[in-house]
Amino acid sequence: METLTFRRQLNGLTRVDMEEYFDDVELENLYQWIDRIPLTRPKKNIGKDFSDGVLLAEIVAHYFPKIVELHNYSPAAATKQKMENWYLLNRRVLRKLDLDLSDEVIRALANCKPKVVEKVLMLLRLQIDKNLQRQGRSRLEIDANFAQSMDTKETKKSQSAPAAENSQALVPVKTGRSSPGKLSSPRKLGKGEIPHNHPDRSSYHFEGKGYFDPAIYIYPTSDNVPRSYLEEKEMECMAKDETIRMLNSKIRRLEHLLQLKDTRMLDLQGQIAREQGLYYVTSRKHVVK
């Protein structure tokens, strides 16, 4: 399959180009990471969802809100507008993270070429980790804090809803009309935007299976164990799982390289044996003459 690798340039940027390698274990891990980030679109097809660059800008803004101006990136259906979004994102945002996309990669992203956006996201995650480390921060810590804040908001919302209904029933608001007053409506969501915990926010799938199931990482609370402690242990387990997957992937690569090395050594030994045999025959002929 076609995918991407990266190399360090003289100007310090990490250049992203097309290559011929892809690892399925890394892909599984990537989908789990994306499912933990709040995005304004439901997850359907990752290539099409990210083809205009808007969701990738949202991912960067999740970790570095000061370097991304989301209003500069409009949802687009035309390839030309998608590429303009990517060029702007590459110039103003990605290069600040020491990442630089080639024209070929940007064209492939805008045209929804399979497996391209996955590798770009993998490289982006790597650069995010490096830049957060320079600032003394952690990606997993940011994700954990976000999950905790969402849980706190949901808890407050569920607790305040019955109280609001009771207060409205007992003390109606005067509006100048005979009908009782109405509570103010919540914030209107933008076009295509859905709440983070909405059921339509499905996970990306790989070979027919979703790789991030929230039920795996949500544990029941008790009176004796604080919820914050459980969430902290949850993030530690997720970090260890991610490390294990990456190490297993590296092990498989090294095993493949060892096989190639052994094959090459056998070929060289065969060449040496043939050369030695030819030299021996030639020397015998010379002696006979």
From TrEMBL:
<feature type="compositionally biased region" description="Basic and acidic residues">
    <location>
        <begin position="190"/>
        <end position="202"/>
    </location>
</feature>
<dbReference type="Pfam" id="PF06294">
    <property type="entry name" value="CH_2"/>
</dbReference>
<feature type="domain" description="Calponin-homology (CH)">
    <location>
        <begin position="24"/>
        <end position="129"/>
    </location>
</feature>
<dbReference type="InterPro" id="IPR052111">
    <property type="entry name" value="Spermatogenesis_Ciliary_MAP"/>
</dbReference>
<dbReference type="GO" id="GO:0005930">
    <property type="term" value="C:axoneme"/>
</dbReference>
<protein>
    <recommendedName>
        <fullName>Calponin-homology (CH) domain-containing protein</fullName>
    </recommendedName>
</protein>
<dbReference type="InterPro" id="IPR036872">
    <property type="entry name" value="CH_dom_sf"/>
</dbReference>
<feature type="region of interest" description="Disordered">
    <location>
        <begin position="150"/>
        <end position="202"/>
    </location>
</feature>
<dbReference type="InterPro" id="IPR010441">
    <property type="entry name" value="CH_2"/>
</dbReference>
<feature type="compositionally biased region" description="Polar residues">
    <location>
        <begin position="158"/>
        <end position="169"/>
    </location>
</feature>
<dbReference type="GO" id="GO:0051493">
    <property type="term" value="P:regulation of cytoskeleton organization"/>
</dbReference>
<dbReference type="InterPro" id="IPR001715">
    <property type="entry name" value="CH_dom"/>
</dbReference>
<dbReference type="GO" id="GO:0008017">
    <property type="term" value="F:microtubule binding"/>
</dbReference>
